[in-house]
Structure formats: structure tokens, C-alpha cells
Amino acid sequence: MASTRVKATDVDDYRDTGLEFSSDFLIGAATAAYQIEGAAHEDGRGVSIWDTFSHTRGKTLNGDTGEIADDHYHRLEADLDLMKSMDLEAYRFSIAWPRIQPDGSGPVNAAGVDFYSRLVDGLLARGIKPIATLYHWDLPQALQDKGGWTNRDTAYRFAEYASIMGDALGDRVYAWTTLNEPWCTAYLGHGSGVHAPGVTNPLAALTAVHHLNLAHGLAVTELRRAVRADALVSITLNFTVLRGGGAGEEEAMRRIDAVANRAFTGPLLQGAYPQDLLEDTVAVTDWAFVRPGDLDLIHQPIDFLGVNYYTTAAVRMGAESAMKRNPDGTEVVIGSEYPGSERVEFVAQSGPFTDMDWNIAPDALEELLVDLHTQFPDTPLMITENGAAFPDEVVEGRVRDPRRVDYLHRHFVAAHRALARGVNLRGYLVWSLMDNFEWSFGYSKRFGIVHVDYDSLERTVKDSGHWVSDLIRTRQIRTGAR
């Protein structure tokens, strides 16, 4: 789709100052349950696929797991006070499905519901809008044992879970997100296998795409029934923002756009899978898992589209599969994050880069927002994740992270420019509130605007956190808030 094609130019630096956001533009931060909660075996919580995956030798850096993480489960009140001290206007958190239904279906674990009820009440008491994500990748292992997202029944179990949470919290939650980044669940979890459940099968990946889309549609229907009339319902997608990288770049961009982006926006927002996607993947599947009536179930009205953005990708067409070689050139059969497009090569881009080796391109965020608005003008947008990992340390009680401050400065400018161009952008949630378990990277990458000492678990607001707080208080983008 056009929304992912931007020019590889960065003529200005996106460091404008003095730009102001209106009082109704939400600014806050986001986290995910498995990355921060800990208490993996307490109060009736069941086992998730990330518990299994992270405890499997070689799957995460240093064998790190989310067993303790930031111990948010036990430090809830203090973390809520921390959010209040930072003047956050909204907090996006995820609900751990295994805390609610340990086996993914059947009886409800009252202790799990109580934890999130206390979280929501604590946010409201501090004047912070709760934004609840139902699924941020921690599928109950019991459902994975039955096929997980390759099993159509999982979509219906997810709808049941959505109904439970809607009934429990629907009178208080400001906004709901059904799924976070289904691209990651489908392609990293079932294509390349670098995320849980670690499957490397292109058919499984595309089957998961459809069942995740179906789960969203079914969940929206359940939430509409259960939550208050003015509650907002959404889904969050991470968009692959594409740039040309050489020979055949237009075809390469079209292919990756189809499988990475339009595989979701097509059925979710337009009621159909793109024809070119079906043609590109004909060697993988005939899409027979799409049953009559499914697209009507998927294509449900939403109140806003969550947009996660971090970086761009440059692509070109290769002469042979770019997914079947090790970095040293030796051949190996590995999974693909882009089923049907294995001949697309990803080309190195110029820096600067974050600690994730992701290039920094605020111009791409502006163009992404503008193009999404152009394509889907009736769908409001919200930046539900944006942020950067850099190595940080506490020195004399302070964390100086000027590169993250600069990153956020430039991306908030990009958001402001999109607003000025008419984009219906409702808010911006920084990833992440706290340093946390960064999936297969373990604890090696720090995205937080609050530093966490993983030995003492002490929290220290970084300079970037103070910068965000200053932005919220003044409504104005300024340089060096501290």
C-alpha cells in the first residue's frame, strides 16, 4: 500500500521547537505484561508460550526469561505513583491471558481479574486513562498444544476471553486494543521462528495471519456487547515502512507491502485480502482456511487504528532466495518472515541507528501517518508504540540519555507535522515506560524512559522521561527539558 513507500531523504532534521499539541492529544507510555510483570507462577497464572519459549535453551539471549522481569505485579502501587509523578495522560498495558484463563478456556481465575481491576482503578484514581491490550503475544500454552494460532478454534477462545475482560473492566477502560502486532505473532512466531512458539513453516504463518484477523473481528463484537458505549475499540499494527534498495525495488516493495501490511489492513479495514497477496503465496497455500463469511466477521468498525513505528526497510529483488543463507554464506533452510517473497533482499541502510541496529527515520513516521490517513480517512490513528533502545546507566542518581531525547523529539515533530497536514491523530504512546524483558534479546536492550536496575529493581526516571513529562505539562516540544 502507498502508506509504506517513502523517499529516502532526510533534508531537514525534524528538530523543530515550539510546536504545540492540543490539550486533547493524549501523551503517555506503554508496556506489555510478560515484559514487566514477573510473578510467573503466582495467584493461579497459567503457562504461556513465552514461558515455554524463553525456558528453551538457545531461544533468548543469556537464557533470560520473564520470571521476574520488572516485578510490576508486586510493585503495582509504586509504579502507578511513578506514572502519576510523570504526569502521564494515558497508559497502555496488556492483560496476560494465562492470568485470566490459565488454560486459555474454561474457568476464570479471579485473582488475575482482580490484579487488572486494581490496575485500572489505580490509573483512574490518578487521572490516567487506561488503554488495555488483550493480546501481546502470551498465548496460553494449553492452546498452543492444540495448534495455537494455526487452529481456528483459538480465534473463538480469544473471543470468549475478550468477553470475560469486557464484562470485568468494560465500565472503566478508556480504550481497548484486541491484538498487538499480529505481524510478529504470525511471521516471527510461525515463519522465522525467532519468537514464540518458534515455528518455521510458511503455511503455518499465513494460517495464523487469518486466524488472528478472525480473532480480532470476533473480539470486537464481544467487546461492543460488553463495554460502555463510549469506550474505544482498536487494533495495533506494526507497519513495515519500505524504501527502494536497488534492482527490482518496486516489485520488492509491492511484495513485502502485501504480506507484511495489506495482509492485515485489507481484511480489517476493507473486507478483503489483496489479490496480489493471494497470487504471491499460491505456492504456499490456496487460502482454503478462509471460510465463507469470515471476511464479514473480520471487517468490524473500529474507533482508531493503533500504529507502531520504529524504523524503515530497504528492499530489492534477488536472483535467488535471500532467506536461505547464513551470514557467512553457507546454505541453510531457515524460516521466512515473508512467506511467498523469499527472493526479496533487505538492503543495509545508512545510519544513525539505535541499539537494535534500526535506522532512525522520523520522516518515515510522518509519511506513514499521512498515507494511512489518505487511504483510510474515516479511521482515526493513534501512535501506540514508538521509541528507541540505547545503552543507559545511572550516574549519580541520573540517567542521561540524550540520544533517546533526540529520537523522541524528532518523532514527536513528525507526529505534529502529520497533524498539521490534516491527519486525524489522537495521541502518542512512548515505548516503553520502563526497561524490560525485550523478548529474544532478553535484558540486553533498554527501551524505557524509566531505568530499571535488574538487581535491585529500583526505578530511575531518565532524562527522556523528564522530557516527556515536560511535553505533557507544557504541551510544547522543547529542547532539553532538564
TrEMBL record:
Substrate binds at Q35, H136, N180, Y310, W431, E438, W439. GO terms for cellular component: cytosol. Its EC number is 3.2.1.21. It holds the Pfam family Glyco_hydro_1. The keyword Coiled coil does not apply. The active site is at E181 (proton donor), E385 (nucleophile). It is an enzyme of class 3 (hydrolase). It catalyses: Hydrolysis of terminal, non-reducing beta-D-glucosyl residues with release of beta-D-glucose. Keywords: Carbohydrate metabolism, Cellulose degradation, Glycosidase, Hydrolase, Polysaccharide degradation. The keyword Hydrolase applies. It comes from the Bacteria. One of its GO terms (biological process) is cellulose catabolic process. One of its GO terms (molecular function) is beta-glucosidase activity. InterPro entries: GH (IPR017853), Glyco_hydro_1 (IPR001360), Glyco_hydro_1_beta-glucosidase (IPR017736). Belongs to the glycosyl hydrolase 1 family. This is Beta-glucosidase.
